[in-house]
Every structure is written in structure tokens, then in C-alpha cells.
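Inverse folding, one chain.
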């Protein structure tokens, strides 16, 4: 980061340091051709039947032999790894498992769309199948600005970008489908699956598929707004953690009257006394509470307590989260759940519980791993992509959100 460069006495590189995601129209063949045997992996009983049938017919119509396997939310890695070799030599795999609804049957904080994708990737590896895996989503990305973003779909893109880094030889790509899967959209999908131009992050939209790009973002033209000031009570999840404590101090310096700092250890967290002392010296009252933010009932109890005390929360900063350093092939569903829950469930609960409350700020601490992936951090990247997706979804609903 620029701050780290400065600390080392190094010059901050010249050039743009602000970037944004852009979507570029792709040139695709009018009549894309697929060949060989393709496996279509589709969720069982999830309402994705029409999409699955349309994809099956389109892939077959563009020249491939298509075999279909239906997979339930309770599927196990070993079960899949036993089944997959029965399909013989494959030219490609198209997974619609991201369209699975609901949560993993045994892990209620984990979306089935994410577990299914992980288990399929693992089982393909276990079976020694090198055919490129394409994962289709719906509503994962805002490519043309009209989409309703679904954060649980966005997290599949976070995981997929790590799969691309960890398994480049077995990775096809991520392809986001439009709500209306008509003929041109299916042609666009098949052009993407033909994969001749190396595009691996694509949104199928009318009139042509769009490829994802990271481009320099212009500096804002308007003069910088006055420095942000905090008001009233601000809730900081992970508020006793490294960055949470920094944020708490920053908020106190900017005028927050009361900071409510949440963490599973609450006042027992290391450095808690020192932090409350520092905040008091800045004239800010603080309350440290033990609360697992992935537990909606626990979070509700905190908010009830604040309401009963006459406190109105004016800002939310969600920094709670765990990093992960497990390669995708070694990540169990339980590990995936453990590593994502605070970020994803915590953010979803905060979003729902503050839906009708006017807030000055709703800030989600995401990470660049959600934008471009990070080898060995699949769960972390997925959770951060979820946060970015949730922020986009909130803004689309007219609510404040920054990630
Ligand atoms: N540090 C960086 O360089 C960096 C870079 C990019 C993004 N980020 C993001 O910034 C955030 C903070 O990072 P950090 O470095 O400050 O991490 P940290 O020091 O490990 O702090 C994380 C905090 O989250 C709390 N927490 C974890 N699970 C929780 C749960 N289920 N419910 C409530 N609280 C929970 C922890 O407290 P308890 O253990 O007491 O629950 C801890 O206070 C993270 O979301 C991270 O992804 C950090």
C-alpha cells in the first residue's frame, strides 16, 4: 500500500492509484462451435430446471455432446468424485450449482451455491479431470448497471478467482447469466464457453457478452467534500481488533459520542481496557459487548439493549472477520463456513436489521482479495466478494453502503 511504501522510505509509484471495475463489450463469433463431450452439472430441485434445460439444448445445439448430472445440496465430495469419472473424457464442464437455493443442510451459515461450487472443483481434482470448469451465476455482477445484485452469487466469483489462481489448468471461468436467457444470450454463453480469446470473467448481456476489466479510475472532478464527521452512536463490529480499534479511535476523533464495539470476546479482548481509556481521553463513551455477529439473535439482543437505553445508531462499521490460509483443495465445508460466517452472515444481519433505519454510513471492511483473488485464501476472497456485492445491492436499493 502507499502507506507501507512511505514507511519503508520508498517513493510511491507514479500513476493512477484508484481503480474501478469496467465491462468491455467482447467480439464473439456469430456462430460459436463447441465440440467433444460436455458435462452440465445442475442443482437438484432448486428451480433452475428451465435454465438447465436451456443450457443443455444450447450447448448441444452448438455442436457438443451433453451429459447432465443433478446434484443435491447435501452432496459429499467423495460421492461426486466417484460419480464424475463415469462420464468419460470431457471437453468441458458447465456448472449451474451456483444457482442452488438455500443453505448447506448441515451448515446453516453457508450458502449451498458456494459449497456446491467448492465441492465440484475438489471432486474434479480428485478424479484427475482436467476439463475446464465454467461456473455460471446469475446476478453476481453489475455489468450493465441494471442488475439486481445477489451477494451470495457474488461470493462464487470471489471463490472462482482463487480457483483460477490455484488451478489455472483446470479452470474455465465465471460467466454471469442474464435473468432472461433468450436465444442471443445462449449464443453468447456458448461463445464464452468456446473460450478461444482467454476471457474468463464474463457477463452475458445484450447485445454482446461483456468482459471484466480493472481500469484506472479518474480522480473526482468536484472539489473534495468537507471531512466526514461522526454523529451519535456508531456500532463497530470487530471493534477491538486491529483495524476495528483504529476505526474506533478515528471515529472518536471525528466526533462520535458513543461507540459500541462488538467482538466475540467483548471486554475480554486483549487491549480492551487500553482502548476504552484512549477513547475516553478523546471524549467518547464506549461500550464493549460480547456478540457473535453471525448469530442474528445475539445481534438483535444488542440492538434491543441499545434501543431500551434510548440510543439511536447513526453509523455501522463492519470489520469483524477471519482471514483464511487454506488452499481450496484442503478446505472443508465446515472450514468454509467458519471462515466466511462473521463477514457474510454478520453483514447480512446488519443489512436486514438496519434496513429501515436512516444511517450516516454503512461500511463493510472488504479486501482486494475479493476483487482479484488471492491464492490460498478462497474462503476469505469469497466472503469479501460477498461484502462488495452486498454494498452494491444496498446502493441499488437507495441505501448508504461503502465496501
Ligand atoms: N489487516 C489488514 O491488512 C486488512 C486488509 C484488508 C482487509 N482487512 C479486513 O479488515 C477487517 C479487520 O481486519 P483486522 O486485521 O483488524 O483483523 P483482526 O485484528 O483479526 O480483527 C478482527 C476482529 O473481528 C472480530 N470477530 C471475528 N469473528 C467475529 C464474530 N463472529 N463476531 C464478532 N466479532 C468477530 C475479532 O474479535 P473476537 O475474536 O473477539 O471475536 C476481532 O476483533 C477484516 O474484515 C479484514 O478482512 C484487513
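Residues assigned per position:
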Amino acid at each position: 500500500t502507499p502507506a507501507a511504501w512511505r514507511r519503508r522510505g520508498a517513493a510511491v509509484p507514479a500513476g493512477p492509484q484508484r481503480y474501478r471495475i469496467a465491462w468491455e463489450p467482447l467480439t464473439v463469433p456469430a456462430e460459436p462451435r463447441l465440440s467433444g463431450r460436455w458435462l452440465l452439472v445442475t442443482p437438484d430441485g432448486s428451480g433452475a430446471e428451465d435454465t438447465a434445460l436451456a443450457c443443455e439444448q444450447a450447448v448441444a445445439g452448438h455442436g457438443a455432446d451433453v451429459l447432465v448430472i443433478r446434484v443435491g445440496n447435501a452432496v459429499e465430495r467423495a460421492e461426486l468424485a466417484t460419480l464424475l469419472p463415469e462420464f468419460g473424457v470431457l471437453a468441458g464442464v458447465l456448472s449451474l450449482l451456483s444457482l442452488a437455493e438455500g443453505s448447506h443442510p448441515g451448515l446453516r451459515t453457508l450458502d449451498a451455491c458456494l459449497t456446491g461450487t467448492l465441492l465440484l472443483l475438489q471432486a474434479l481434482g480428485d478424479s484427475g479431470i482436467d476439463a475446464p470448469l465454467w461456473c455460471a451465476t446469475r446476478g453476481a455482477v453489475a455489468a450493465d448497471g441494471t442488475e439486481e445484485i445477489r451477494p451470495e452469487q457474488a461470493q462464487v466469483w470471489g471463490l472462482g478467482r482463487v480457483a483460477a489462481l490455484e488451478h489455472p489448468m483446470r479452470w474455465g471461468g465465471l460467466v454471469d447469466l442474464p435473468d432472461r436467457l433468450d436465444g442471443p444470450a445462449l449464443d453468447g454463453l456458448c461463445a464464452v464457453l468456446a473460450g478461444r480469446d482467454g476471457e474468463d470473467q464474463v457477463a452475458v448481456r445484450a447485445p454482446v457478452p461483456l468482459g471484466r476489466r480493472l481500469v484506472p479510475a479518474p480522480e473526482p472532478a468536484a472539489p473534495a467534500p468537507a471531512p466526514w464527521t461522526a454523529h451519535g452512536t456508531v456500532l463497530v463490529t470487530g471493534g477491538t481488533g486491529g483495524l476495528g480499534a483504529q476505526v474506533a479511535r478515528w471515529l472518536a476523533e471525528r466526533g462520535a459520542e458513543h461507540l459500541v464495539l462488538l467482538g466475540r470476546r467483548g471486554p475480554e479482548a486483549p487491549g480492551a481496557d487500553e482502548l476504552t481509556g484512549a477513547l475516553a481521553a478523546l471524549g467518547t463513551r464506549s461500550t464493549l459487548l460480547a456478540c457473535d455477529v453471525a448469530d442474528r439473535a445475539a445481534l438483535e439482543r444488542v440492538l434491543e439493549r441499545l434501543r431500551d437505553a434510548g440510543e439511536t445508531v447513526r453509523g455501522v462499521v463492519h470489520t469483524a472477520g477471519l482471514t483464511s490460509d487454506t488452499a481450496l483443495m484442503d478446505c472443508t465445508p465446515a472450514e468454509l463456513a467458519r471462515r466466511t460466517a462473521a463477514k457474510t452472515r454478520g453483514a447480512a444481519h446488519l443489512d436486514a436489521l438496519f434496513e429501515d433505519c436512516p444511517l450516516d454510513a454503512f461500511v463493510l471492511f472488504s479486501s482486494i482479495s475479493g476483487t482479484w483473488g488471492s491464492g490460498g485464501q478462497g474462503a476469505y476472497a469469497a466472503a469479501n466478494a460477498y461484502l462488495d456485492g452486498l454494498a452494491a445491492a444496498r446502493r441499488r436499493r437507495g441505501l448508504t453502503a461503502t465496501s
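The chain has twelve helices and 15 strands. Residues 237-238, 240-244, 262-265, 269, 292-294, 319-322, 342, 365, 367 surround NAP (CB under 6 Å).
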